[in-house]
Amino acid sequence: MEKQLGRQVGEWVQAATLAEVRRRRRLAVDVAGRPIALFLVGDDVYALDDTCIHKQRSLSKGAVLNGRVICPGHQWVFDPATGQVEGQDECQPSHAVRIADGVVYVDPQPRERT
């Protein structure tokens, strides 16, 4: 039985189907009112806040190149797992992802930066 997308399950929120993410490789979703960009890198799905911390552009409209997310605004390069910006001290908020039964779940709270 398929669960309705966007429904909150504990602290995890259904964001998309794994098939959608595989088909598009990058996808803008809403997670508990927060714009999130999902990225498929290899076999892994990562979640970053969709609004770039630099120029407020949508990261989901950027590119994935060599395992990195490239912002469409000023080509800042982000590590999709941590949100760390190459060559900068800044960090894009990232979110934990869980996949179960073909559904991608995202924690709506950003990870603590370490």
Rg value: 13 Å
Spans with pLDDT under 50 lasting ≥5 residues? none
Count up the helices.
Answer: 1
**Side-by-side strand order of the widest sheet:** 1-2-11-10
What percent of residues are in strands?
A: 35-45%
| Sheet of most strands | 4 strands, antiparallel
Share in helix: under 10%
Q: Determine the structural class based on helices, strands and strand pairing.
A: mainly beta
Number of strands: 11
Q: Taking all residues together, what is the mean pLDDT? A: 90
SSE pattern, N- to C-terminal: EEHEEEEEEEEE
Sum up the overall morphology in one term.
globular
Gap from first CA to last CA = 38 Å
How would you describe this structure to a colleague?
By secondary structure, the protein is mainly β. It has one helix at 18-24; strands at residues 8-9, 12-17, 26-31, 34-41, 44-49, 63-65, 68-70, 77-78, 94-95, 97-100, 103-106. A hairpin with a 2-residue loop joins strand 4 (34-41) and strand 5 (44-49).
Summed up:
The protein is mainly beta and 114 residues long. The chain is 6% helix and 40% strand. Strand 4 and strand 5 form a beta hairpin.
Secondary structure layout plus pairing:
Blueprint: E1 8-9, E2 12-17, H1 18-24, E3 26-31, E4 34-41, E5 44-49, E6 63-65, E7 68-70, E8 77-78, E9 94-95, E10 97-100, E11 103-106
Antiparallel strand pairs: 1-2, 2-11, 3-4, 4-5, 5-9, 6-7, 7-8, 10-11
